[in-house]
Design brief:
The protein is α/β, with parallel strands linked by helices. The protein is built from 24 helices and 15 strands. Helix 6 crosses helix 7, helix 13 packs across helix 18 and helix 14 packs across helix 22.
């Protein structure tokens, strides 16, 4: 682009606090040098819940790197000029909400934030907004009256837009100089507010970090990704839509909102499969421009000595826990949710255990995952360690194992450990990865980066994964990334590998990338009767179990033959992984994907506001 974009608004539920995947994207994107060279001013807008003590603690934590200029919840008003103070206070009174205005630091850069607490908003303005959304977009809010999440984002949209006007974000700017990016459906109400209040004066983008209806269909049926993607691929061949195959999904409020993304000037998709998932919605999505804008990774150069030092700490930890020093360290850092397909790790480990035994090698898989992201109190963890050997042993009657952790441990980890000969799985259901958080048997020098640097394999065989940043982060440190073929990161890794292979003197085979193993649990055996989307709908859990049981063996074999045998092999893996990471950096993402996508939004014709697509 010839010049910097003057203004980009990011509408997101993680504007104030990093919660999950979108927060990681914002960290990488807004902290990238290339982004800050290309965008003059950025403002993040989103919700705030002043009654949630945990959220407020995280918001106010020094680690959040936030500076408050104005907040009625905090009693801070002196960071803004009197005229702005009066304007923000007037918005609060009109909408009966509370505002926070300030900045957050992302890397070396500070960006503005505007947050709204709409605990008890004035019903008049909210109902008026809902009426206009129904009139212009066909979304009947009354149908989703019990959807608290939707109610929240509809309640904050108009106050957020008013606050943006108050802080003067758009003064003197033309339509092609100011952008609103809706990060997922949660940001779309702000887009609605802008399009209705100031038609044809903003460029808008829907940033699809997933396709919510696709996630619902994958997770809700035992056939999971095997069923859904085979149905999607057959439907593509016949020109059928999601409603044609799976029935009408207007009952799902996220579905109704996402269908209005065609009203934006452009759509970003974070992974290759998100594009056909969006097109599967049918209608205007069939010909709408959709730009691939992959997620990036942060590059951390590492030496062989540094990797070996981290690996030794992990081996020490295993020795302290299990009484042996493993030759290989495997890891899986993830959220404890269904979409992560964590049972697939155990299926692959069953095969790897036998392969390792044949060459007299040992391994341990550290699974860092929890249903309680805020963590357990450290004194409880230390007590459990003394009482029953946490994290090798766990209990479900004392606050240790909760929710999905219980089933994963008792139905998966513990039976595997009883059967295995040369490997074990350890579930650490406590974030922190240091001695204070995780007990005395963890080496005192240990930090989370040691787990990333010292691992030989990172698992991530999800059933639904639009991109998968955590799965590819360890590539930078020479690890093997084992992902399922529905992970959006696969396309990016393969693109970079192809480019590296084309360089003069390269020995990399992009079709046999030593740092990437792609597990295929979607492709069906030759001869399987699959001729239509309806045939795919018959794929159930037993069929998927059969596919996983067969294909996990091939996945294990490809991991096994890529495991480095000596330090020279480790050094080669580090060299290759670092090259891949550099090609997937956030600066590359901004330069090659994000900024060209913004440019296309300037010339793409959005669907007219006054011809709503029925939901």
């Amino acid at each position: 682009m010839d010049s910097a974009i003057p203004l980009v608004i990011h509408a997101t539920h993680e504007a104030g606090v990093k919660v999950g995947g979108i927060g990681a994207v914002l960290d990488g994107l807004l902290g990238a040098d290339a982004y800050n060279r290309s965008v003059s001013r950025s403002v993040l807008v989103g919700p705030l819940n002043g009654k949630d003590s945990v959220e407020m603690e995280r918001l106010n934590s020094p680690r959040n790197k936030m500076t408050i200029r104005y907040s009625s919840l905090h009693g801070i008003f002196d960071g803004v000029k009197p005229a702005l103070h009066d304007a923000l206070q007037g918005i609060e009174q009109s909408f009966q909400i509370a505002l926070l205005y300030g900045t957050r630091r992302f890397g070396a850069y500070e960006h503005e934030i505007v947050l709204v607490d709409a605990t008890n908003p004035a019903s008049g303005p909210v109902n008026e907004f809902r009426y206009h959304v129904w009139q212009n977009y066909g979304i009947d809010s009354g149908r989703y009256a019990l959807a608290d999440e939707m109610n929240l984002y509809f309640s904050i949209a108009q106050p957020l837009f008013s606050a943006l006007k108050a802080i003067g974000v758009d003064a003197g700017l033309s339509q092609n100089e100011r952008f609103i990016i809706a990060h997922e459906w949660l940001g779309m109400p702000v887009v609605f507010a802008a399009q209705m209040n100031e038609p044809n004066r903003w460029r808008t983008i829907f940033y699809a970090h997933e396709m919510a209806t696709a996630r619902l269909l994958v997770e809700a049926h035992g056939g999971h990704d095997t069923r859904f993607y085979n149905a999607l691929f057959r439907a593509q061949e016949r020109g059928q839509s999601l409603d044609d195959v799976f029935g009408n999904h207007d009952f799902y409020f996220k579905h109704a909102i996402i269908r209005q993304a065609v009203r934006c000037d452009n759509i970003f998709a974070v992974g290759d499969l998100v594009v056909p998932e969006l097109r599967f919605l049918g209608g205007d999505f069939a010909h709408k421009n959709i730009d691939l804008v992959y997620n990036g990774v942060t590059v951390h150069p590492i030496t062989l000595a540094e990797k070996l030092a981290s690996k030794r700490l992990l081996q020490d930890y295993c020795q302290n826990l299990l009484g042996y020093r493993p030759d290989y360290i495997f890891s899986h850092v993830t959220r404890m949710v269904l979409s992560k397909g964590m049972w697939r790790d155990i299926r692959v480990m069953e095969h790897l255990d036998r392969m390792l035994a044949e060459v007299k090698k040992t391994a341990v898989l550290f699974v860092l995952s929890t249903s309680q992201p805020a963590g357990r109190r450290s004194e409880w963890v230390h007590a459990w360690e003394q009482q029953y050997g946490w994290p090798v042993g766990h209990r479900s009657d004392n606050g240790d194992l909760i929710d999905a952790e219980t089933s994963f441990f008792f139905n998966g980890v513990e039976p595997f450990n009883r059967r295995a000969g040369d490997s074990r799985i350890v579930l650490i259901n406590q974030f922190g990865w240091d001695q204070r958080s995780c007990g005395q048997r963890m080496p005192a020098e240990m930090s989370f980066m040691d787990l990333r640097r010292g691992s030989d394999v990172e698992f991530g065989q999800s059933i639904y994964e639009p991109f998968g940043i955590a799965q590819v982060e360890p590539l930078n440190f020479g690890a093997i990334s084992c992902v399922s073929n529905v992970c959006g990161c696969v396309g990016f890794v393969n693109r970079v590998a192809q480019a590296l292979a084309a360089e003069e003197g390269s020995t990399l085979d992009p079709n046999d990338n030593p740092n990437l193993v792609v597990a295929d649990y979607v492709s069906l055996p030759n001869g399987y009767p699959l001729f239509s989307p309806q045939d795919a709908l018959s794929i159930d859990q037993p069929t998927r179990d059969w596919i996983e049981g067969t294909n996990s063996g091939d996945t294990a074999w490809r991991i096994f033959r890529r495991l480095p045998q000596d330090e020279a092999g480790m050094e080669k893996m580090i060299e290759n992984g670092e090259a891949l990471a550099k090609g997937m950096s956030w600066d590359v993402v901004v330069r090659d994907y994000f900024m060209p996508g913004l440019e296309r939004a300037r010339v793409t014709q959005a669907v007219s506001l006054r011809t709503p697509t029925a939901s």
